[in-house]
């Protein structure tokens, strides 16, 4: 079975929709990719790569036993072609480059249990109406088409405005892309000009063009090559004058460059420290809360609604993505977090090991809590011992 058939089914037909699916605002939802042009700018690719690299370290957590096979798959290999890290990296990359990304289920049989998920990147996607039910119809770069019920797949977006399903695209970055391209061309041309002509030579006689070209090569070879270590230029009677030209080295306008970079950083919600891996805890915390956490939250909700039935979700079954693998804090902060959360029952021994990037202890996962804490409802039966900073049961006096 081919890669395509494994995902969409070998005999799954492309639905012949009688009409496009209309939203409440009367808009016809359709998505078209940019063809990768925004991803070709080096600074923009660096921003996307940094976000995708950090997102790839998120840890999937499944609550509930309804989809045990999917739980094992998400932990290490969500589909036969990607491990969990590559799956998350791919999702974030497509989302950042196109403001929309799609996830399709992989089942053990047609219409069977979901055993995996896969991110797809169509060149076009449109919402169509099939007997009153919305379907997503994909068109890929090679012209292949496939369709799937909207209720069975996942859709992530950002910068959503006009379209009720798809992101608005990265059109506002077109002017910045032009600036980046113009800046690069200017730097290249400036370097060529500053390292080009170094002498102005006037010949005292009239020569044919071929003779001028031959004399230019001879003059350069005799006087400007590495073999001339004396630094002295000799001329004979055929030259009227040889004037050295003072060429100033090309200097990049730092303020203009910084302004263009700020436009990119502001748009993608990142900064130079994240790209160069030289951020501190405060910078990382801001980047995580503004970028990675939102991605993790949306992905968890999308997969939960995609996989679990309403009844299963009502029982609390869900898919989440935690940040235990994001090693951003100093050892002092890690120690404080581990100490304060572990003995309050908010952090398991496995989670504490993850924070320190250590293997899990042998045995089952355990939660512990300090014994001196009591339920506030039981306070009337306790008293404070001033000699100690914890609560203990009161000793009742015997009635005389």
Task: Give a quick precis of the structure.
The chain has 400 residues and is an alpha+beta fold. It has twelve helices and 14 strands.
The total count of strands amounts to: 14
Q: Whole-Å distance between the termini?
A: 88 Å
Question: Would you tell me the structural class of the helices and strands?
Answer: alpha+beta
Q: Quick one: biggest sheet?
A: 5 strands, antiparallel
Mean pLDDT over all positions: 79
Name the poorly predicted regions.
386-400
Overall spatial form: elongated
Share of helical residues: 25-40%
Q: How many alpha or pi helices?
A: 12
Query: What value does the Rg take, in angstroms?
Result: 33 Å
- As a percent range, the share of strand residues is 15-25%
Order of SSEs: HEEHEHHEEEEEEHEHEHHHHEHHEE
Describe this structure in words.
With 400 residues, this protein is α+β, with helices and mostly antiparallel strands. Among the domains are: 3-42 and 73-170, no CATH class; 199-245; 329-400, no CATH class. It is built from twelve helices and 14 strands. Helix 2 (42-55) crosses helix 4 (84-98), helix 2 (42-55) runs parallel beside helix 7 (254-268) and helix 5 packs antiparallel against helix 7 (254-268). The longest helix is centred in the last third of the chain and has 27 residues, at 281-307. Residues 386-400 have low confidence and may be disordered.
Quick tags:
alpha+beta, five-stranded antiparallel sheet, disordered C terminus, 400 residues, 12 helices, 14 strands, three-stranded antiparallel sheet, 38% helix, elongated
């Amino acid at each position: 079975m081919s890669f395509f058939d494994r995902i969409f089914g070998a005999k799954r037909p492309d639905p012949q929709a009688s009409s496009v699916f209309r939203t409440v605002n009367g808009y016809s939802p359709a998505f078209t990719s940019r063809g990768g042009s925004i991803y070709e700018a080096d600074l923009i690719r660096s921003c996307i790569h940094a976000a995708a690299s950090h997102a790839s370290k998120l840890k999937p957590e499944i609550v509930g036993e309804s989809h045990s096979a999917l739980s094992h798959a998400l932990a290490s290999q969500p589909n036969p072609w990607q491990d969990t890290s590559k799956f998350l990296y791919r999702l974030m990359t497509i989302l950042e480059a196109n403001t929309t990304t799609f996830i399709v289920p992989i089942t053990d049989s047609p219409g069977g249990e979901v055993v995996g998920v896969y991110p797809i990147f169509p060149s076009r996607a449109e919402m169509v109406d099939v007997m009153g039910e919305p379907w997503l119809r994909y068109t890929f770069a090679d012209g292949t088409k496939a369709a799937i019920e909207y209720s069975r797949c996942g859709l992530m977006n950002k910068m959503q405005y006009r379209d009720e399903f798809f992101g608005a695209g990265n059109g506002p970055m077109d002017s910045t892309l032009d600036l980046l391209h113009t800046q690069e061309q200017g730097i290249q041309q400036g370097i060529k000009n500053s390292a080009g002509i170094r002498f102005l030579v006037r010949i005292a006689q009239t020569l044919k063009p071929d003779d001028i070209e031959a004399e230019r090569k001879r003059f350069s070879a005799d006087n400007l090559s590495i073999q001339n270590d004396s630094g002295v230029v000799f001329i004979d009677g055929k030259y009227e004058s040889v004037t050295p030209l003072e060429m100033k080295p090309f200097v990049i306008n730092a303020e203009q460059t910084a302004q263009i970079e700020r436009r990119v950083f502001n748009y993608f919600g990142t900064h130079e420290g994240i790209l160069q891996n030289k951020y501190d805890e405060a910078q990382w915390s801001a980047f995580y809360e503004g970028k990675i956490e939102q991605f993790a939250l949306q992905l968890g909700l999308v997969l939960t609604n995609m996989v679990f039935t309403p009844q299963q979700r009502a029982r609390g079954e869900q898919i989440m993505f935690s940040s235990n693998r994001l090693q951003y804090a100093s050892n002092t902060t890690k120690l404080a977090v581990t100490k304060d959360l572990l003995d309050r029952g908010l952090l398991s021994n496995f989670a504490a090991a993850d924070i320190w990037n250590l293997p899990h202890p042998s045995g089952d996962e355990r939660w512990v809590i300090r014994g001196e804490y009591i339920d506030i409802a039981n306070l009337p039966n306790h008293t404070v011992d001033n000699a100690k900073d914890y609560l203990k049961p009161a000793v009742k006096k015997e009635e005389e």
